Amino acid sequence: MFKEFIKKWRQYRYRFVPWISLNLKERSVREVKTGEHDKIIPDEQLVDSLLGILHALFDNEPSSRTTHHLNVSQHHEEAMSMDEMYELYKPRSFEDVRSLHMKNMEKLYDTTGFVIDRCPSQLIGGGRGVAVTRGKIPKHSLVALYPGTLYQPQDPILFQSINNPFIFRCIDGLLIDGNDSGLSKFIFKSCHGRERIGPFYTCDMSWLTDFPINPLGIGQYINNRSNDHPANVAYQEVDLGDSLQFHLRQYIPHAWYQSPGYSDYRCRTVALVSLRDISEDEELFSSYFTVVH
Ligand SMILES: C[S@@+](CC[C@H](N)C(=O)[O-])C[C@H]1O[C@@H](n2cnc3c(N)ncnc32)[C@H](O)[C@@H]1O
Predict the structure, then answer these.
(1) CB neighbours of 81 closer than 8 A, spacing ≥ 6?
(2) What digits encode the pLDDT tens for the residues 185-243?
(3) Percentage of the chain surpassing pLDDT 90?
(4) At 236, which CATH number?
(5) Is residue 120 lining ligand 1, measured as CB closer than 6 Å?
(6) Residue 162 domain-assigned (yes or no)
(7) By residue range, what is the domain housing residue 61?
C-alpha cells in the first residue's frame, strides 16, 4: 500500500511541481538578490524629480513664509522674536490645508503634467485605489510616495501592525507604517510634533487626511496587481540625505519612530515609479509580492 503511494507520488510530483513554479514565475515578482538593488531608474534621477516637485510646492506657500524660511535655512536669519515666528508658522487650519492641497494639485499638474488622487477601485472588494485623474504619466516617472512612520527593524510595532494592511517592508528590514487611522495615526502625529524644530515642522502630517499638501503622498492606497490589471508602477526605495534642504522637509510624509537626532538626518522614502506610459483615468497597480533572496 505504502509502496503504491510512493510510486504514484513519484509520477505526480513532477506534474504538479513545475505547474506550481510556472504559476509563480507568471507573477510579476519584485525579486531582489542579496547585495543587489532593484532600481527602475537611477536614484539621482528620482531624487531630482522629487526635489523639483518639492521646490514647486514651496513656491505655493505665502511669500512671508518662504522668504523667512529660506533665510533661516541659508543661515541668514532675520531678527524676529519667537512670538512673531510662531505667529508666522502657526499650524494651518483645516480650511488652509484644504485650499493648499487644491493649489498644490494644480502645481503638480503644471510641474509634471499629471495629477493622481484616491478613488473607488475598479477591483471587486478593492476599496479605494489611486488613479490618474488628469493628464498622463510618462514611463519611468516618479508617480507617488509611500508615506508613513519609519521603523528600524528593532523597533516595536506589534500593536500597530494588528489588522493593518499598510505596513511596507523595505529590502533592509526597515518598515513603513502607512496607515492613516487608529494607533498608527496617533503615533505619526506624535512623532511629527516631537521632530519640530522651534516653529518649523520637519515632516508633513497632512497625508493622514484627505487633503495631503504633498499630493504625491498617497502611494499606500495603490492596490495590488491582478491577472486583469498588471502592474503599471513599482516601488523604488531611496534614501534622501543631504540633498533635502531644510525648508523642503515640511513636505516629506515620513517621521522616524525613534528620533535619529538632528545631526544625523537621513530619510528613507519609497517612491512609486511608472513602468510604462499611463493615461488619464487609468488606475495604478503595483506588485505587493516581493522576493528577497
Ligand atoms: C495597502 S491597502 C490598499 C488600499 C485599500 N484598497 C483601501 O481601500 O484601504 C491593501 C488592501 O487593499 C485591498 N486590495 C489590494 N489589492 C487588491 C486586489 N488586487 N484585489 C482586492 N483587494 C485588494 C486588500 O484589502 C488589501 O488588504
Answers:
(1) none
(2) 999 999 999 988 888 889 999 999 999 999 999 999 999 999 999 999 999 999 987 78
(3) 62
(4) 2.170.270.10
(5) no
(6) yes
(7) 38-292
From 123, 176, 210, 223, give the residue whose CB has the most ligand 1 atoms within 8 Å, as the site to mutate.
223
Ligand 1 centroid to Cα of residue 236, in Å, is 20
What angle do helix axes 94-112 and 43-59 make, rounded to 10 degrees?
Answer: 130
pLDDT digits (tens, 9 = 90+) for 265-279: 678 999 999 999 999
> In this structure, is residue 14 part of a structural domain?
no
125 lines ligand 1 (CB under 6 A): yes
Say how many domains are in the chain.
1
Classify residue 262: in a domain, yes or no. Answer: yes
The rounded Å distance from CA 127 to ligand 1 centre is 6
Q: Hey, what's the cell of 146?
A: 509611500
More confidently predicted of 259 and 124:
124
- Ligand 1 pocket test, pick from 119, 121, 168 with the greatest ligand atom count within 8 Å of Cβ, gives 121
* Beta-sheet strands, E only, within the chain: 30-32, 114-120, 128-135, 142-145, 148-151, 167-169, 175-177, 223-224, 233-240, 254-256, 267-274, 285-286, 290-292
Residue 7 lies in a domain: no
**How many Å lie between the centroid of ligand 1 and the Cα of residue 186?**
22
